[in-house]
């Protein structure tokens, strides 16, 4: 896939997931944080929650494609740092996917109550899943933010892309690095998502990109 197209897809999926989360998932989550409310969730509400999870899975996949495209076009394959970056992308994406999948099923087992179990049992389940999802999310964002920032700085140092093009991506990565210390607070991630969208727009709205090896042309 071409880098410009990958940036467009990454930006669109990130904006779609962010807007859906703010308009649909956030009010839904605030209503469902009480165990008594969570036990009375409808099947339609649960599917709205899971749909948000699918949006974020697409966003993670599009982010991977964008970084792989950047590395494919501009990073020398033989370098050790390039191979380390590839490994970090895979590990961070795996942790993020696990976190999203756990979160998608946070409100899914309402049959616990229908089988006669007490409300406290459902509350323990919710807390357990939430802590597991947040822990995986924090680790994934730490590694994902780190490798995103690393790639952005690396391409600037190698004189492959202009510094101004890479600054939004580096800002998004640096803000994501703070996640293990700030979660479940999400304000820094909203700013990171905005910076990431600006970065994707910076790359995706261009007609052409600089050649990786202009001396050979």
Automatic annotation (TrEMBL):
Presence of keyword Lyase: no
Protein name per its UniProtKB record: DUF4386 family protein
Protein's UniProt keywords contain Glycoprotein: no
Alphabetical UniProt keywords: Membrane, Transmembrane, Transmembrane helix
Signal peptide interval: none
Segments crossing the lipid bilayer: 12-34, 54-74, 86-104, 124-153, 165-183, 189-209
């Amino acid at each position: 896939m071409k880098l410009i197209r990958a940036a467009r897809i990454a930006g669109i999926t990130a904006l779609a997931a962010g807007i859906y989360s703010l308009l649909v998932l956030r009010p839904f989550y605030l209503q469902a944080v009480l165990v008594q409310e969570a036990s009375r969730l409808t099947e339609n509400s649960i599917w709205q929650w899971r749909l948000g999870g699918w949006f974020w899975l697409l966003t993670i996949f599009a982010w991977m494609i964008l970084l792989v495209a950047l590395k494919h076009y501009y990073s020398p394959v033989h370098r050790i740092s390039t191979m380390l970056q590839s490994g970090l992308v895979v590990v961070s994406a795996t942790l993020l996917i696990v976190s999203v999948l756990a979160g998608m099923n946070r409100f899914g087992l309402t049959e616990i109550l229908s089988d006669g179990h007490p409300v406290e049992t459902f509350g323990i389940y919710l807390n357990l899943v939430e802590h597991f999802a947040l822990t995986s999310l924090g680790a994934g964002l730490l590694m994902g933010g780190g490798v995103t920032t690393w790639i952005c700085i690396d391409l600037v140092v190698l004189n492959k892309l202009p510094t101004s093009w890479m600054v939004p991506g580096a800002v998004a990565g640096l803000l994501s690095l703070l996640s293990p210390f700030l979660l479940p607070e999400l304000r820094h991630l909203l700013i990171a998502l905005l910076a990431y969208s600006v970065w994707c727009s910076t790359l995706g709205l261009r007609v052409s990109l600089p050649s990786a090896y202009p001396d050979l042309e």
